[in-house]
Write a structure and sequence with these properties.
heterodimer; A: Helicase, Ruva Protein, domain 3; 4 domains; two-stranded parallel ribbon; 7% strand; B: 2 domains
């Protein structure tokens, strides 16, 4: 990947500790702990809102102090077994090059457990107690990061850690950083526009940089008017608005930014995009290219399942490319239809409710499951009722006249 | 009342208040008889406690990381959105933020 294609959050990721803006006191405490105070507390827990530099500080410090990072984040399973398999060896040995005379020697491993407040569920069973044991026995620094340290399950972990709090980055500092990026990217930006982005980010530097890139990358200019769409940041973006934004986007970065703020269901969104693509691209070649990207996005959605969320970026990336096959060809279209599957479910809701009620009554009388009643009993009850409408079955099952009518007329189930 | 985070004096306090101040992140220099802030994890509670001791609202002056000048959060137009208003953290003063003349010199700070 060329450096110009990088997302600016990656391109301008802090390389040195001093590159990280804000939280000077937290940075100083962390560096002091890393340099000298590890004897009192073997682990440190960095906590604070997202996008304030916790992970960036760990990465920058590891680079500056020549540590090798062994990282486990929320996308990894963090059960007792997994932690013992990865983290225990990483923290049990001091690097051999500590004993060398080489000036550029490494200091060994540094275990970094990101988003520890996300350790939950059956998959991560025993994770917290395994971490505590590792902290007690560790010969190398153990660093953890969390957004919410008040989670009940982290209470025992907090006792063995030095706690360092990160605050939201102040708006003037965010503006200053955006000014710096604009200068380096040759973006001519109005001060008021940067001010608006910074205010809207609420101290989240990552989202501020993403906003700046999505709004200014194409024209290398940024006016206050360009930031008008940012007002939706702190609201839930509806499916309709997300789709309209998606189809009218002018660049991949713009779509990525939109998708990362929207809280739509990804499966429904994928179906909606798929159903509406023919309205967006009238040229068959463009439509085919767009469907290829949607198809790849669908593959990644399947791989993500409920666990592998680190693949979400590939899902977003493919969808973004589907939207940006030919940005110039965009013409607003009035009606964006919801996915056909959802429409079908909506239209058939009454029928499904009726059938559910019938299956419930059959199940109660015949002592069978709902599903068995639907597949094994309903076809025969239907045939019997079609032959004799006043069958004793109606009274026995306590069917209402509407249910009888429905059963007799239904075509398939 | 405006305080300096590096050194501020308080009237003599009871033992339990003193312990609470230490617990919340204060440090005490016996030789000079001044308090300073050592940990910022409980800074809001610490400010409340100090306000209670002084029986007065307490604010910390902000230090501009560009020019080093002290300024109050009241001078900043973003104070309503700021979650660390009046707390002793580094910031950029309004003059430096708008000053285009020293802009390049200013961003080198980062």
């Amino acid at each position: 990947m060329q450096r110009n294609d990088l997302l600016w959050v990656e391109k301008y990721r802090p390389k040195k500790i001093e590159d990280i803006i804000g939280n000077e006191e937290a940075k100083a405490s962390f560096v002091e702990w890393l340099k000298t105070k590890r004897k009192s507390k073997k682990a440190v827990l960095l906590y604070g809102p997202p996008g304030v530099g916790k992970t960036a500080l760990v990465n920058a410090a590891a680079r500056e102090f020549s540590f090798t990072i062994i990282e486990m984040n929320a996308s990894d399973t963090r059960s007792e077994k997994a932690i013992n398999a990865v983290a225990k060896p990483a923290t049990s040995y001091v690097a051999l090059d500590n004993f060398s005379t080489n000036q550029t020697k490494g200091k060994g491993n540094l275990l970094f457990l990101d988003e520890v407040d996300g350790i939950a569920g059956n998959e991560d069973r025993g994770g917290v107690s395994a971490i505590i044991k590792i902290v007690e026995e560790a010969l190398t620094p153990v660093i953890m990061a969390a957004n919410d340290p008040d989670v009940e399950k982290l209470r025992p972990l907090k006792k063995v850690c030095l706690l360092i709090r990160f605050q939201q980055i102040r708006i003037p500092l965010v503006i200053a950083l955006l000014q710096k990026i604009c200068l380096l990217e040759h973006v001519k930006a109005e001060f008021e526009a940067l001010e608006r982005i910074a205010q809207n980010s609420r101290g989240d530097v990552r989202s501020a940089i993403n906003d700046l890139q999505s709004l200014s990358e194409e024209n290398h200019s940024l006016t206050l008017q360009d930031t008008a769409m940012l007002s939706s940041r702190n609201k839930d973006i509806s499916m309709d608005d997300t789709l309209r934004g998606f189809f009218s986007s002018k660049s991949i970065a713009e779509v990525s930014s939109l998708l990362s703020y929207s809280s739509v269901d990804y499966d429904d969104f994928l179906l909606s995009v798929s159903d509406n693509l023919p309205r967006r691209y009238t040229n068959p070649a463009e439509l085919a290219a767009a469907y290829d990207f949607v198809s790849q996005a669908d593959v990644f959605r399947g791989r993500i399942g409920t666990e592998y969320w680190h693949l979400l970026k590939y899902f977003f990336n493919n969808l973004s490319q589907a939207a940006a096959v030919n940005p110039q060809s965009y013409k607003p279209f009035e009606f964006i239809s919801p996915p056909i599957r959802i429409i079908t479910l909506f239209w058939t809701k009454g029928k499904r409710t009726m059938l559910d009620g019938i299956c419930g009554k059959i199940g109660a009388k015949c002592h069978v499951s709902h599903s068995k009643a639907k597949h094994d009993f309903v076809p025969f009850v239907k045939m019997l009722l079609q032959k004799t409408k006043n069958s004793f079955l109606i009274a026995w099952f306590e069917f209402s006249p509407e249910e009888v009518d429905f059963l007799v007329k239904m075509n398939r189930f | 009342m405006v305080l300096n985070k590096k050194a501020f004096k308080l009237p003599r306090v009871e033992k339990d208040k003193f312990v609470l101040l230490m617990h919340l992140g204060c440090d005490y220099n016996r030789d000079q008889g001044v308090f300073s802030i050592k940990s910022y994890n409980n800074i809001e509670k610490l400010m409340e406690t100090i306000s209670g001791i002084l029986d007065n609202e307490v604010i910390f002056l902000q230090s501009c990381i560009r020019c080093g000048k002290d300024f109050a959060c009241g001078d900043c137009k973003y104070d309503e959105l700021c979650t660390t208003k009046n707390l002793p953290f580094g910031c950029v003063c309004p003059q430096c933020l708008r000053d285009r003349k020293h802009f390049e010199q200013y961003i080198e700070k980062f």
